[in-house]
Design a protein that fits this description.
Blueprint: E1 2-8, H1 12-23, E2 27-34, H2 41-54, E3 62-64, H3 78-81, H4 104-111, E4 118-122, H5 127-135, E5 146-149, H6 165-169, H7 171-180, E6 185-188, H8 190-193, E7 197-198, H9 200-209, H10 211-232, E8 237-238, H11 240-249, E9 254-263, E10 273-276, E11 287-293, H12 295-306, H13 311-321
Parallel strand pairs: 1-2, 1-4, 2-3, 4-5, 5-6, 6-11
Antiparallel strand pairs: 7-8, 9-10, 9-11
């Protein structure tokens, strides 16, 4: 079992990713750190606790992180995820459990003051990670793996022609992390996550296999479905963050290449990931940029866990339905 800390900004796909990670038998989620991104940080914290309640795992500590980017003004993605961050689903939190007193960045800096066999899954803007590096410059040396959902190589952006939201929201933190972490950053960007479309057929399949889970998925994805149709004429929604979890568990699910990568912090290309695939700058690679994904394997793993169903049945059904 791989131990991991998840840094996230719970929105819709973060909530799905958190549930997937927590319920997975391959991962041991030690802590959740929350950053402002899809929704303001306090809403994100509340949504993290909603997922923990759903998974009956309120023992996992939650740390409140930064409420604004390193330098830029904060712009949420509530137009995409709803004002509550969960698609205006009306899901209420039942527990009164509160986040830890220590801030997310302090927790991360202190936790990785020692070499540990623990990785980090960063599913939102990299603000908490950037502040933690400033507190502990050796942080990256003591992390087992660092996987981030963010950026894009050849695919178009989702908040500008060239920029993915997480890095666009806080490009200065993304740049700092890429240039200062001192470890290969595994970039799960839009090139691969755009292939992961949770569509109406898959949703209906969930109803057949696990009606209770279907009801939850329907509530939190309807807003997401409507957004994707309005802006992209896509039937369904791209669920970016669960792919980062699947890749962390099974790296063979995606393929890519090592390269030096940095992030633009100003102008019309703010937030763009600058991937030097052909080594013009002659810099040592600091990233692995993913560009292909086995969608069928992803949906088999993801639905097996979320629907609490036998993997063989899920795989067989996906074959028959030609899904994934």
């Amino acid at each position: 079992m791989q131990q991991v800390i998840i840094d996230c900004d719970p929105g819709i796909d973060d909530a799905l990713a958190l549930e997937y990670a927590i319920k997975s038998t391959e991962l041991d989620v030690l802590a959740i750190t929350v950053v402002a991104g899809n929704a303001p940080v306090d809403i994100g914290v509340d949504n993290a606790f909603k997922v923990l309640e759903r998974c009956d795992r309120l023992d996992i500590p939650v740390y409140r992180g930064s409420e604004a980017p390193l330098k830029r003004s904060y712009v949420s993605a509530q137009d995409t995820h709803g004002m509550d961050g969960l698609g205006e689903s009306g899901i209420n939190r039942q527990s009164t459990v509160q986040p830890q007193e220590k801030t997310a960045e302090t927790f991360l800096a202190d936790f990785f003051a020692k070499k540990r066999t623990v990785g980090v899954l960063a599913l939102g803007p990299l603000t908490n990670i950037a502040y933690a590096i400033q507190l502990n410059p050796k942080l990256g040396q003591n992390i087992q793996r660092f996987v981030t959902m963010g950026g894009t190589y050849k695919s178009h952006g989702n908040c500008s022609p060239v920029a993915e939201y997480n890095y666009w929201c806080d490009p200065d933190s993304a740049k700092l992390v890429y240039e200062s972490l001192g470890k290969i950053i595994e970039m799960v960007g839009l090139d691969v996550t755009r292939e992961i479309v949770f569509n109406p057929t898959i949703l209906e399949y969930c109803r057949r296999i696990n009606p209770d889970t279907y009801d939850y998925l329907r509530k939190i994805t309807k807003f997401y479905f409507d957004f994707h149709w309005q802006y992209e004429h896509l039937l369904g929604c791209v669920i970016n963050d669960p792919l980062a979890v699947a890749y962390y568990i099974s790296p063979e699910i995606c393929d890519g290449f090592e390269s030096y990568t940095t992030v633009d912090t100003e102008g019309i290309s703010v937030g763009q990931t600058l991937v030097d695939r052909y080594n013009f700058w002659k810099n040592k690679p600091n990233s692995k940029v993913l560009e292909t994904v086995d969608t069928k394997k992803f949906f088999t793993q993801f639905l097996t866990v979320l629907l609490d169903a036998p993997e063989a049945i899920i795989a067989s059904d996906l074959n028959l339905l030609k899904l994934g």
